[in-house]
């Protein structure tokens, strides 16, 4: 049986692992020296039994190697004692092997069976699509139907494949624009409602053992039985808490909830068994990617294993809800909603499998564009209000990128809520007008509504809901967060500045510096020339205000994909967020000038 050898140097406890990993039983100090371990016969030697590896463990081999290397030795003894107890240890190793072998065999058989069944299930979904693709790609009438079937197959395949499709929609440097646009549909929530069965267990996990039994009825005024929101990894439930009772039960004060007697909260709970499903699917995807590269070496330039490793890192961060909770707390520190107009839910408690946060009311921001004729939204459609909303989103994103270096990596209209007249009594320099009780004043307000004359935001508020024009953006779902290295951040600023200064060739060179493997680029000089032509064409506008940044970056991504310039995933996430926010901002305000907003950040370069 293999063992690890550790040599302890005094009190520092420095461990040196022998790479050959031989059995150390019965070896002399000279033989230890031959193995590269210097020691004194009287010096203490540590003998560590390796942690048993269970075949059902789907942990990535690299993670398994690190966890084994950092495991604590089970047994320590001197060299002399080690030799004296050699027969006992050998006998013990035989017993351990005898006991664990049937367990290894049983677990290995079960994992093998699960993988076979899962592969068969996936084959039933995707093999018919692969067979019919040549026909669907040639017949336009079948093409849309084929893509609909692809999306349905992905949605029915579980969280790993849904997240894989969502991740693929952000890698416009690898996949075509049409493919990414279709995969972006997977960002919408399509799962059915679930019943809140594990409520007591979740509360005990977050607030401590026995909380549900002793304090649930006092703290929770109401808990809705069914989920109000659903994703592929977690379900969201709604409840109402009594804030003073919550503070008494937990022994904590929540300054953010001060002034509230009752407060609506959202409870986000990870799906049961989601991590096991993801581990199984990832092991299948890794084996499939390796097999694909061996069968078709021409696909090697795509580096599917490296791309899959990036996706796995993103997915595992989303499965652990602690990452999302910490990101929410960080964003709340970075954005004071009274000054910036940007708000994030307040985290009350969290664990690996659950987050309890404040429930934020509002409507999805895309309603302002998709439902322009809605009479309930007519009061929100004044150009000044729409322009202010667009500027709020643009400035928030620029602050995330260039000031905080902490960027929401999943910014799309489905993750942004909007509401009006937020905390009007607390805004500096703003007074609240009394209600309009006089008939004359009501008539004046009616005429103003008819002619479309609006009071400027942050100047005057009334209790009339149609005049509550101060917007607040609420950003949700912070499971994906991007932080650039200092070098990448400088290059990103330089890229935007090169575009502004019409230095297209330099912009192409900067894109190559962001490439994970620039050697795959077929012709770097030709690539830079084409980027130069693209920038020159786009910048031949009368002003930067008329420059469509989303279209420019989209065409640039097409060039990147055509020349096999695969960019760093964090860089593509940031650029995609810029494209999404700029595109949506222009739908609200066609004159939105993102470069004008970014000018203070771009000019402040070392």
Give me some keywords for this one:
23 helices, single chain, 17 strands, alpha+beta, four-stranded mixed beta sheet, six-stranded antiparallel beta sheet, disordered N terminus, 606 residues
Describe what this molecule looks like in 3D.
Among the domains are: 4-84, no CATH class; 363-475, no CATH class; 484-603, no CATH class. It has helices spanning 29-34, 61-69, 79-84, 86-138, 140-155, 159-170, 177-183, 199-207, 211-219, 243-250, 274-295, 304-319, 321-334, 337-340, 367-370, 383-404, 439-451, 486-500, 504-514, 524-539, 549-562, 569-588, 594-603; strands at 4-7, 44-48, 75-78, 220-223, 229-230, 234-242, 262-270, 342-343, 347-350, 354-358, 363-364, 407-408, 416-420, 431-432, 460-461, 471-475, 481-482. The chain is α+β, with helices and mostly antiparallel strands. The two termini are 59 Å apart. The chain has 23 helices and 17 strands. Strand 5 (229-230) and strand 6 form a beta hairpin. Strands 4, 5, 6, 7, 9 and 10 form a six-stranded antiparallel β-sheet that branches. Helix 4 (86-138) runs antiparallel to helix 5 and helix 21 (549-562) runs antiparallel to helix 22 (569-588). Helix content is 52%, strand content 11%.
